[in-house]
Amino acid sequence: MMPRLGAKYPIEIEIVSKPKAEYLTDEYFELDLPAAPAVMVGKEIVVEGSNVAEEKVATVIRRHLGLPESEPRRKSLLGRLFRR
Fold it and tell me: Which of 14, 71, 73 is CA-nearest to residue 42?
């Protein structure tokens, strides 16, 4: 998802991957960064500790860049039936 959004918007994408034990150290907590997995745009934490929809990340990126928000996609018939 992130490489696709990086290609679509003029924004730098940085992916940090560490062993889980490194996220649980005192040094990591002192950095005041979110718990993994997480997505941040600038200093804003979009989601922390769970998955996130691409649409939500794109909305935050657009707001960060000063672009107008995109129109929400209409749900399909199945999406409306199952309330996804």
Answer: 14
Query: What was the pLDDT predicted at 72?
Result: 65
Handedness of CA 11, 32, 15, 61 (dihedral sign): negative
Q: Which residues of the chain have pLDDT under 50?
A: none
Spatial CB neighbours of 44, under 8 Å, sequence gap ≥ 6: 60, 64
Coil, helix or strand for 54?
helix
Q: What is the rounded CA–CA span in Å between residue 35 and residue 48?
A: 6
Contact 12, 6 (CB under 8 A): yes
In 3-state terms, the chain is what percent helix, strand and coil (to 5)?
Answer: 40, 10, 50
Distance CA 22, CA 60 (A): 27
